[in-house]
Amino acid sequence: MAVLNSKIPEGNISEKWTNHKFNMKLVNPANKRKYDIIVVGTGLAGASAAATLAELGYNVHAYTFHDSARRAHSIAAQGGINAAKNYQNDGDSVYRLFYDTVKGGDFRAREANVHRLAEVSNNIIDQCVAQGVPFAREYGGLLDNRSFGGAQVSRTFYARGQTGQQLLLGAYSAMNRQVGLGKIKLHTRKEMVELVVVNGKAAGIITRDLVSGAIEKHSAHAVVLATGGYANVYFLSTNAMNCNVTAIWRAHKKGAYFANPCYTQIHPTCLPVHGEHQSKLTLMSESLRNDGRVWVSKKKNDMRAPADIPEDERDYYLERKYPSFGNLSPRDISSRSAKEVVDEGRGVKGGEAVYLDFEDAIKRLGKKAIEEKYGNLFEMYETITGENPYTVPMQIYPAPHYTMGGLWVDYNLMSNLPGLFVLGEANFSDHGANRLGASALMQGLADGYFVIPYTIGNYLVADKPEKHSTDHKEFEEASNSIKEITAKLLSTNGDKTVDEIHKKLGRIMWNKVGMARNEKGLNEAINEIAELRDEFWKSVKVTGQAEELNQNLERAGRVADYLELGELMARDALNRKESCGGHFREEYQTEEGEALRDDENFTHVAAWEFEKAGKWNRHTEELNFEYVKLATRSYK
Amino acid sequence: MSAENLKLKLKIWRQKGPNSAGSFSKYEVAVSPDTSFLEMLDELNDSLERKGEIPIAFESDCREGICGACGLVINGQPHGPVPLITTCQLHMRNFKNGDTIWIEPFRAKAFPVLKDLMVDRTGFEKIQQAGGFISINTGGVPDANEIAIPKDISSLAMDAAACIGCGACVAACKNASAMLFVSAKVSQYALLPQGQPERYERVQKMVKVMDEQGFGSCTNTYACEAECPKGISVTNIARMNRDYMKAKIISKNVEV
What we know:
The complex is a heterodimer of chains A (636) and B (256). By secondary structure, chain A is an alpha/beta fold.
């Protein structure tokens, strides 16, 4: 078993990052321009990293499969971004944000990383304001905050319901400035399809030009992946249509370990599935749970309209089971409870939905107050469903939303492959088994603005990587293998469409590797996914040509990767014989049905090494909790 | 939420590449009124793929109206008949059984068609790269609360910043002008204290590149505002024009 060295610096938790910054080697300013760095992905993590590295003087090559860096899915984040500013004088501190994040992650994250995240959170807000990000303000002109995701302090900064958009546009503007100055070469509509490794170090990437179909080789001194999460393995998720695992998966197949793939966040307040042709699920802001009451009928398969179900025949199950947190119970708990009542046949008309009802809130506060608070969301709901939530209760159901797992990285955000750095949702590092609301934006920007600019320099000086010619045989081989896979996809000419197979995979994942998992289901999933993978390669139908704009081919390549990833997620879930955060094993629960961790045997990161599809080796990194004591999360 | 399927005739613009001639192709579909417009196209594409035909190329990503990737001209209107939403938020219940729907790409000289319903909006990027930023580096900035900004000013800046860069304003304009798009960014920074040091230089740089990219002139028809899915106001254009005029008088770096 390989030794995974997390490279956590010595010293007290609050001094580790400061000491580490001093101890790391620096690149002479005049030498920075001699280094080429590839950054893949232009969301919060990628754009902030590209901009900052370019400001420092490195030659940055940034890649996105979109037509513009501004389209990355960070743009869709609604709620906000956390920081330990304590502007509200309500007792927040770096230590409290650190503590809440470790506890919220159900004690499966690295303490040192989380503390650093909390430390730089304040710098992020300063940076964004200086860039002109229009955060919400109070009448005195200072920044407004709100409490979010069950936090007991108001530490969330927001820009209406479009915080992700505004933060991304801030990072995008910083990046555009460097593009204009010639320090970033921006490559749009290029999808990374292969990582190139030379002598054990990341040396470049292979891309497919999505307009011409050309396969192109790019070499650099280091490669940074900031390519987001993989919730689209479920087919239906809140992720954008083009979000995919391909960049990190192909890197995984070249030797990068994949950590904790089974940790998936299922968001409780999404719109339910309306039919088999649905393409994605829409998130409704969690803030709705501040005033909405969640309920279902006490009877199974109750076909009555909600208004015809009398009060005493309704089950307000969150209020019943968790009297102190009620409708505001954390995401994993709310999601699982919805699944329980639906599995009992008590969902809306026996289906997969529960009610989120504002009748009491409207009676108590008046329609106008509700309109002021949630007007946009109510309109959005009506646009999509055609129903008016002021008069008919909303229908909601959980949906896959965020993946805490990702490529394994050390404290420097470098994977086990030297020269390959992984940022944002694409790595596994800071959220443990469950991410708190408003923490994803924080992590993406922390990694890009304030961590990678320091740690990458240390690598360049200490490891002295060379930049290889793209004629090197590793580049040739990687490029040829992509051409072969493409040819195979286009020539199979079977009778199953890519979406058809992706939907089948999604159903297996949702039913057996979803909100609640058990040994039998996971074993079945492993076999079914392997069979589906065979079916894909025997009978997929991909139309068009390799050397042209071909969206069918793009999707086929991504689904091929999901068919491997899905199996690894199931294997990871099967091996983790405990329940923690977003990973709930039915065999491991308390008498009250709450998640039951096994700290003695599973206080570790599981990092998987790829051998071949269907065969992985499991490595572990022990987690030590020196500051936040291991305790059971309770929201009763 | 289920009702009878709608039977619809679609006339969709098909064009192999930037230099090919395009034409409308006819399709017939039956869809649930709860389906979104783009899901209808997904479904149609799945049936085309099944027959071994080339699916219709179109762009979309977030499918919740914020990324700005999607954008079709539906029956002559960018983003279709419902105001203040993007194409991906349009649902089929807004159409009637038996309707014929014409679907085209955004049409503008500065947005060449790449394939079918997909256009190249690189022109927007070039404008942003010329001046759509505040020239500061990461680190070394003041504490966020050292810059107090009146709530109403901040709110106006946010109204402008809500632009999603979809290009509907250009597609709606008979001159294919990008003034609404450019003025939204110029206004955001012109309103905020952080944007003041480069205010007059920025507007000149962005307008210059806007002209170079082949976007047309503004003749105040307000078609852009009418079709903007985010309700960006034409008052931003007025603000930009004022700044531009002032820039010509006071700026040390007159470029135009």
